[in-house]
Specification:
Blueprint: H1 15-27, H2 29-41, H3 47-59, H4 65-101, H5 107-128, H6 134-137, H7 139-144, H8 149-174, H9 179-216
Helix pairs in contact: 1-2, 1-3, 2-3, 2-4, 3-8, 3-9, 4-8, 5-8
């Protein structure tokens, strides 16, 4: 029978942290794995809260550290496989058909993206699992490009294990201050998202200017 988190005053009572606490206390490792699988499918569920909280629970004896790492990594792989499957079902032809309907893009842009993924896909999947925001999204193009499933599973497992270990161990060592991890990782997530928005904005502005210049030259 699982132990409750030892200090009631420190135990999260509501929100995502309270929900994750309930899962871990009730189901142990499988509960943590389920939470992380959902986090992969719904990125607004933050791994920077769920993983350190799982580490804190391990430090309190709710589950073992080995169980925490095993189940959260398994949950990561299961969630990533669901997104991979979505990309595989959507497929390359549908992606090209959708791309052709989008403004400001050219078929050559998608072809170059596919060529880039063919050259760097293994690194993208491995390192992408350790980057906030993109750690879930990277599974979709891997499915679209039909990366060999054993390769995808191996890379996803390795990258997820590194990410999960860092955050779970941080929660384990910090104890009652586990939520500090979420503050710092959340800040990194905002920076990454901000850089992505800036990159997209720069690309759109450049494309619009290019179209205007081409029209003037006609």
């Amino acid at each position: 029978m699982h132990l409750a988190l030892s200090v009631a005053a420190e135990e999260p009572k509501g929100g995502i942290a309270g929900w994750a606490t309930g899962l871990v206390e009730t189901f142990g490792g499988p509960g943590a794995g389920f939470a992380i699988a959902l986090e992969n499918l719904f990125p607004p569920l933050p791994s920077e809260i769920i993983l350190p909280l799982t580490g804190f629970a391990a430090s309190q004896g709710v589950l073992s550290l080995a169980s925490a790492l095993f189940w959260t990594t398994l949950g990561s792989v299961v969630g990533a496989l669901a997104l991979y499957g979505l990309g595989a079902v959507f497929g390359r032809e549908r992606m090209h058909a959708l791309w052709a309907k989008l403004p400001l893009v050219k078929p050559a842009d998608l072809v170059r993206t596919e060529e880039w993924f063919a050259r760097h896909g293994t690194k993208a999947v491995l390192l992408g699992r350790m980057v906030p925001v993109f750690r879930s999204l990277i599974s979709v193009p891997a499915g679209v490009e039909r990366m060999p499933l054993p390769v995808f599973i191996g890379l996803t497992t390795a990258g997820s294990l590194v990410w999960n270990t860092v955050l779970v161990m941080a929660g384990y060592w910090l104890g009652d201050s586990w939520d500090v991890v979420g503050t710092y990782v959340g800040l990194v997530s905002k920076v990454v998202l901000g850089l992505a928005v800036l990159a997209v904005t720069w690309w759109v502005v450049k494309r619009v200017r290019g179209r205007k210049d081409s029209r003037r030259g006609e």
